[in-house]
């Protein structure tokens, strides 16, 4: 997991993204898991957008 500093929400998002990456890696060697991997990738991308929004908000609060 990243050592990025931030709010509890950011840390939660980082942990969730890390867990999804581990799941996607585990599924990589399993046949017929393409649709599940795509779904997990979509969820990961949504979490990444949420995280980016959080980072921007927190950055604005520092200024």
General shape: elongated
The termini sit apart by 27 Å
Number of strands: 0
Q: What are the low-pLDDT stretches, counting only 5+ consecutive residues below 50?
A: none
Structural class by sheet pairing and helices: mainly alpha
Strand content: under 5%
As a percent range, the share of helical residues equals: over 70%
Query: Biggest sheet: strands, sense, closure?
Result: none
Radius of gyration: 14 Å
In DSSP terms, counting alpha (H) and pi (I) runs of 4 or more, how many helices? 2
The ordered string of helix (H) and strand (E) elements is: HH
Whole-number total of structural domains? 1
Mean pLDDT: 88
Question: What key phrases describe this protein's structure?
Answer:
mainly alpha; single chain; 63 residues
Description:
- The protein has one domain (8-62).
- By secondary structure, the protein is mainly α.
- The model has no long low-confidence stretch (mean pLDDT 88).
- Helix content is 78%, strand content 0%.
- It contains two helices and no strands.
Topology:
Blueprint: H1 8-27, H2 34-62
Helix pairs in contact: 1-2
In brief, what are we looking at here?
This protein is an all-alpha fold and 63 residues long. It has helices at residues 8-27, 34-62.
